[in-house]
Amino acid sequence: MSSLSETDKLYLEKILKMGDGYVLDYSDTTFDQFFRRFGVDIHSNKYKTYGTSKAKKMRSFWNQERDILVGRVLTEMIEVYEAKCNLNGQKIDKELLSKTRDIIGKLLGEIPKSKPARTIERFLREDVALPDINKLPIEPAVVPVIEFRVEEARRTLEAGAYLSVVVLCGSILEGVLLGNAQKEPARFNRSSVSPRGPDGKG
Potential cystine with 189: which of 55, 91, 135, 202 (Cβ 3.0-4.6 Å)? Predict the structure, then answer.
């Protein structure tokens, strides 16, 4: 008996188009020929436990046979599915295909490929899209200064001078806040966190 879960079977039935009793576009003859390559007489009484349609025989095969045999059969059947889709110009559901391959890999005892670790170096190399500086609520005259600082920070990051990047980021933030204060001085002066003189006035 294979270790396929009910969820696994749902994915397999989807990709093999088993909803109406069929399995892909196999006829009774081609279905028999396919399985005989693996030493399986798929039309024998052994696989008629759920009925006589190709889909029901396939489900019976899954339930009765060992993982390794089920995995080998599914591997070639999925390869046939892929080839026919490519030759006939049919779109392949890549997400479903990937999930199916994972299921087959589990049957064959393959160790799933782990995603590469997100190292500090990889994180620092990730390109993060910046917002349009012209759309920031700041004084227009400050925009070129901030753009220059951002580009300077990019070059410094590429050079690996990470501490300098942190300092530049502080400078960029300071410029943005200054630009905002210059655009709305009255609002800035009313803020409870704006700088005050000895007399408590802004």
Answer: 202
